[in-house]
Write a structure and sequence with these properties.
- This protein has nine helices and 16 strands.
- The longest helix has 15 residues.
- The chain starts with a helix and ends with a strand.
- It folds into two domains: about 130 residues, Aminotransferase class 4, branched-chain amino acid transferase, N-terminal domain (D-amino Acid Aminotransferase, Chain A, domain 1); about 160 residues, D-amino Acid Aminotransferase, Chain A, domain 2, CATH 3.20.10.
- Helices cover about 30% and strands about 30% of the residues.
- The protein is of the alpha+beta class.
- The model has no long low-confidence stretch (mean pLDDT about 95).
- Bound molecules: pyridoxal-5'-phosphate.
- The site of pyridoxal-5'-phosphate has 14 residues, from helix 7.
């Protein structure tokens, strides 16, 4: 992505400590423990524009903010902002920018100001909403490689928390993937089974069954992963949550990467070995179609997963 594109993606307004401010004024102290010791947690959500409804819908807003509450509880932040307050602030941030296209929303909370490693306050929050179209890889897929970096463990830097600190592990895997010419890395856990990717979870399809590593495999308890398991159940598609061995990635007929930002990205090869026919498989495409309908409020059955932004 070029520099101009990044600059133009900056929103006009952000929400800082509950107040809508010009994006340029959303700043924190250089000595904030959120920065100096990564005492910070966050959420990433998507909002989808439906031109027929003239409406922007935030997907799974409540679930994301509840996961944030869990993350804040584990890293012990004082008086964390409530889900109710953050809900209104996300809506305020989107409305202030008057977005009428697909967006990404980052909600982050951290120890602000100046303090030691175990400081638990004062707690700051910021919400950055920006335009973000669907990734091209949704249609075209990506090539992945197994990373030499192992996933951080639940008893060290727990991946179940969406903590900024965990993204060092993801960054190292992502940098390595880029260096060797892959689009993304697959990270194994200490047991040597598949954990997840740098910013999303993994599914494979073997002999008609959808398979994904369990929540004890060193993954973030992904909301997209859970959504896809629910969709599979609704389609009478057999699905298993179980350990996945590295070489199963080479045997799988289909494989895909999922998460809020990536949505559902077909994985065409792993370690240079074709997955299936090296094209998005039929189940991957079926799930993508169902997902797209749901997130744009074109499937009434799942309307309660969406929060409309405009009145
Ligand atoms: C490390 C990691 N795993 C999984 C996910 C997918 O989680 P979710 O579906 O809740 O966005 C993400 C992305 O947000 C992530 O960063």
């Amino acid at each position: 992505m070029d520099k101009d594109r990044k600059l133009s993606d900056r929103p006009e307004f952000a929400v800082l400590n509950g107040v809508v401010v010009p994006f340029a004024d959303a700043r924190i102290s250089v000595m904030a423990p959120g920065l100096t010791f990564a005492a910070a947690v966050f959420e990433g959500m998507r909002a989808y524009w439906n031109p027929d409804h003239e409406q922007l819908y935030v997907l799974h807003l409540h679930d994301h903010l509840e996961r944030l509450q869990f993350s804040m509880r584990v890293i012990e932040l004082d008086n964390p902002p409530s889900t109710e307050d953050l809900t209104s602030q996300v809506i305020a941030g989107l409305r202030a920018n008057n977005f009428r296209e697909d967006c990404y929303i980052r909600v982050q909370t951290y120890v602000d100001d100046w303090g030691e490693m175990i400081a638990t306050g004062p707690v700051g929050s910021s919400i950055i909403c920006r335009r973000r179209p669907r990734v091209e890889a949704f249609a075209n897929g990506k090539h992945f490689a197994v990373s030499s970096w192992r996933r951080n463990a639940d008893d060290a830097s727990p991946p179940r928390i969406k903590a900024t600190a965990n993204y060092l592990n993801s960054r190292l895997a992502g940098l390595e993937a880029k260096r060797i010419g892959a689009d993304g890395g697959i990270i194994l856990n200490r047991d040597g089974t598949v954990s997840e990717g740098p910013g999303g979870c993994l599914f494979i399809v073997r002999d008609g069954r959808l398979i994904t590593p369990p929540v004890t495999a060193g993954i973030l308890e992904s909301i997209t992963r859970r959504t896809l398991l629910l969709l599979a159940a609704g389609m009478d598609q057999p699905a298993d949550e179980r350990d996945v061995g590295r070489t199963e990635l080479y045997l799988a007929q289909e494989c895909f990467y999922c998460g809020t930002g990536q949505e559902i990205v077909p994985i065409l090869s792993v370690d240079g070995k074709a997955v299936g026919t090296s094209e998005a498989g039929p189940l991957t495409r079926r799930l993508q179609e169902a997902y797209d309908k749901i997130v744009r409020c074109r499937d009434a059955a799942y309307r309660n997963w969406l929060t409309p932004v405009y009145e």
